[in-house]
Design a protein that fits this description.
Blueprint (H helix, E strand, L loop, with lengths): L14 H5 L3 H7 L30 H7 L3 E5 L8 E6 L3 E2 L5 E3 L13 H7 L4 E4 L17 H16 L3 E6 L1 H12 L4 E7 L16 H11 L2 H11 L5 H11 L8 H11 L14 E7 L7 H10 L3 E6 L6 H4 L1 H13 L10 E2 L14
Parallel strand pairs: 4-5, 4-6, 6-7, 7-8, 8-9
Antiparallel strand pairs: 1-2, 2-5, 3-10
Helix pairs in contact: 4-13, 5-6, 7-10, 8-9
InterPro entries: AB_hydrolase_1 (IPR000073), AB_hydrolase_fold (IPR029058), Epox_hydrolase-like (IPR000639)
GO molecular function, one term: hydrolase activity
Pfam family, one: Abhydrolase_6
């Protein structure tokens, strides 16, 4: 059985050592203030904006990544003030372009709990971004959460904080987000990685015609424990009930924020993402990753996507369901790292360490 608690990474050098103790990351977080504005204390504290239910999560890797989530100011034209936008920032800056991880529909950056540290071990500068309307951003003054607003918010976050072309990684609906963004802001994207890509569904369809009270009723059901458990059982090829329960608590944590329902209803009624006609406009190199046993997005659609993209390669992961980056993190981390670093100098110079203000740190980097 697969479990976040008993995984034994072997493919990426240094991964085993990182995963042997949930406290190893805590010590790194406090090494001279190198990690950004939300560095945590050695007693394992979480950012104050994360719902208190995070303390009930058992998985040490989910807890460790949750402690690294911070909010960055993003100025957008459709909001009077900056949106404090949640993400996980990289520990270091490299000369190569960064990998920027999106997430699935109604999810958060915690989706990358297992793969994120492996990418860091593979020397990939990695961001994990919460898409506007989901995740742990501060949306007390609710902005519009339609596809266009999500796209522009991501652009402003990139323009303000990342500032270099990205290897943009989109799983499931996140693949539609990635395609939409790459077509509209090609200067911000170097390459695309699409995982279990849900890109052939034409928006939210008839859901846009629902009366608001029915939309709210449906959205409330989305965060229910039974529905989330069932979705996880469908998404993964082989999973124990205890692991499924813990992963469900991780996946629904952002739903406990007070503005989650309003933001999700806003997205649903707006029509959602429809990128069918944008696929052939993508002029970037693309890596498609799919699970052999995906019960949510058929592998036939991955093959169709491969045929529609001008410059794409495809890799199928055996014995894996809809979310390979959760279920098979070692393989996905290796694929992302190889694709991200291809064409770059892998014998790269020492990374640039960032301090809490996001500035270059002159102190030495500690591995």
């Amino acid at each position: 059985m697969l479990s976040w608690l008993n995984c034994r990474p072997a493919l990426i050098p240094g991964a085993r050592e990182r995963f042997t103790s949930m406290y190893s990351m805590h010590l790194w977080f406090n090494s001279g203030g190198r990690l950004g504005t939300n560095a945590v204390s050695v007693d394992g504290g979480f950012p104050s904006f994360i719902p208190a239910e995070v303390k009930e999560i058992k998985d040490p890797f989910a807890r460790a990544l949750a402690q690294r989530i911070q909010r960055l100011p993003v100025k957008v034209g459709f909001s009077e003030s900056c949106i404090m936008s949640s993400c996980v920032k990289p520990r270091f800056q490299r000369d190569t372009n960064p990998a920027v991880l999106l997430h699935c529909f109604d999810s958060s950056c915690l989706e990358w709990t297992r793969t994120y540290p492996l990418l860091e071990d593979a020397a990939v500068e990695t961001w994990a971004i919460d898409i506007l309307g989901w995740g742990f951003s501060d949306l007390e003054r609710l902005p519009p959460c339609d596809a266009a607003s999500k796209r522009y918010h991501l652009y402003q976050l990139w323009r303000t904080h990342i500032k270099r072309p990205m290897i943009l990684v989109g799983p499931s609906l996140g693949a539609a987000v990635a395609i939409d963004f790459a077509v509209n802001f090609p200067e911000a994207v170097d390459k695309l990685i699409l995982i279990g890509a849900s890109v052939h569904v034409e928006g939210t369809g008839l859901l846009t015609k629902l009366p608001k009270f029915l939309a709210y009723a449906g959205v409330s059901l989305l965060k229910s424990l039974p529905l989330r458990l069932y979705a996880n059982l469908l998404a993964f090829d082989d999973i124990s009930l205890s692991t499924c329960f813990d992963w469900t608590n991780v996946g629904r944590l952002h739903c406990l924020l007070p503005w989650w329902e309003d933001a999700t209803v806003n997205y649903m009624l707006s029509g959602g993402y429809n990128v069918v006609n944008q696929i052939k406009q993508v002029n970037k190199r693309v890596l498609i990753i799919c699970g052999e046993c995906d019960n949510i997005v058929s592998n036939k659609l991955a093959v169709r996507l491969h045929s529609e993209l001008p410059d794409a390669s495809i890799h199928q992961i055996p014995d894996c369901g809809h979310l390979p980056h959760v279920e098979k993190p070692e393989m996905v981390a290796r694929l992302i790292a190889d694709f991200a670093l291809s064409g770059a100098h892998k014998e790269e110079q020492n990374p640039i360490v960032l301090n809490s203000a996001g500035e270059k740190n002159t102190s030495s980097f500690i591995c």
